[in-house]
């Protein structure tokens, strides 16, 4: 199983202009063009979303500034390239048939003032550590996707925030406005999109360097995992699991497998974010002259959230025409008929790997509602990848005012997700987590023993609470144990 951990082709660290030429990506899309790319319907263009109702969109008070910011983005190089996107699509297609597991993780919302190399590195490291554990447990390749290099915008429940009788626009993420409660900070500034683009470019360069420069060495990852299990009790299942991984590595080396080769020291890593701020997404959409397809080159994969997946809305209109792999979040509010309509809109040709369904319900509602959704998809013969988002349905506010999440509730929802798939004979294809590699105290529970009265120690999030590195890795061990049983292997004792 470990041999599958690092078998994907590597995303190279490269000069943007050279890569754009190599992949035949047009430098600037004709945003008002009605030309049709391969696979897109004749009534779609990168700007056709503007004829639809766009929810959760900021109102800009200066059209000239908005036009200037969009024009700047249209002239900038793509952040990702068509060949990389197609590589991810191929891996997701294999996962749809039960031959892969998707691990998505990263910040709730990236912030300008928190950006630094160490922050990116720490989250990247924990995702790779989790992937190693999951690969051993599932005996299948793990597709690694970071909520990074573009996860800036956030939907809001209310358009305005009121404090002491003063109403200002809600904070919607640094790509739109700033968190400080002042009229200047809360102004929706279109030039924030340009700053977000440049930070995303730096983040991608860091990720490419770490994924190809030896930082992803499998022996290094295993050593970090051993550091984690040292915090657990003697004889714990985490230590037993880590010992099995150690035995496998020793066995491969004894058989003459060169674990210093590229297959074991480099890895493939992709990025994704919520498709929310459509002017930004349209400005970074490019047409691939090789295939004629349009790609949103702001990320390898994009998803549409629960609040913006209306059938007649702008966000489904935009995403249906791009060639990127897509995701859509659903809760217990989604009916089987509605889900089928969403699938038909986002993946009308029923292409494997095109669409990932991200399920967020809470354990009890998932056990009640999820089987009917799977049954409808099976009945209609739709090809989708099911993954669990166990964090969003388990958020609550403490008496002291902290928004937090319970590790135990998150674990319970993951258990319910796997139980339902066992009952339905379907493939539990992945997990989607809001997490960080840093030692924050934002979610309660787990081996890190964060309690409600210690949340204030390191509560650093700009938006929703995140699992810290130890909590995320603990979840990976728990999922790996469950996947091991699914593959027919005996539990580790």
Overall description:
The chain is of the alpha/beta class and 493 residues long. 39% of the residues lie in helices and 13% in strands. It has 15 helices and 14 strands. The strands form 4 sheets. The chain has an 8-stranded parallel barrel with strand order 1-2-5-8-9-10-11-14, surrounded by 4 helices. Strands 3-4 form a two-stranded antiparallel sheet. It has a two-stranded antiparallel ribbon with strand order 6-7. A hairpin with a 5-residue loop joins strand 12 and strand 13. The radius of gyration is 22 Å and the shape is globular. About 7% of the residues have low confidence.
Find the count of extended strands (DSSP E, 2+ residues).
14
* Unreliable residue stretches: 6-39
The structure class reads: alpha/beta
Percent of residues in helices comes to 25-40%
Shape: globular
Q: How large is the radius of gyration?
A: 22 Å
Helix tally equals 15
List the helices and strands and how they pair.
Layout: H1 16-22, H2 63-75, H3 82-96, E1 101-106, H4 117-138, E2 142-147, E3 160-163, E4 166-169, H5 183-186, H6 192-212, H7 218-229, H8 237-254, H9 262-265, E5 270-274, H10 278-283, E6 285-287, E7 294-296, E8 301-304, H11 314-319, E9 326-330, H12 336-346, E10 355-359, H13 363-380, E11 385-388, E12 395-397, E13 403-405, H14 407-424, E14 428-434, H15 469-486
Parallel strand pairs: 1-2, 1-14, 2-5, 5-8, 8-9, 9-10, 10-11, 11-14
Antiparallel strand pairs: 3-4, 6-7, 12-13
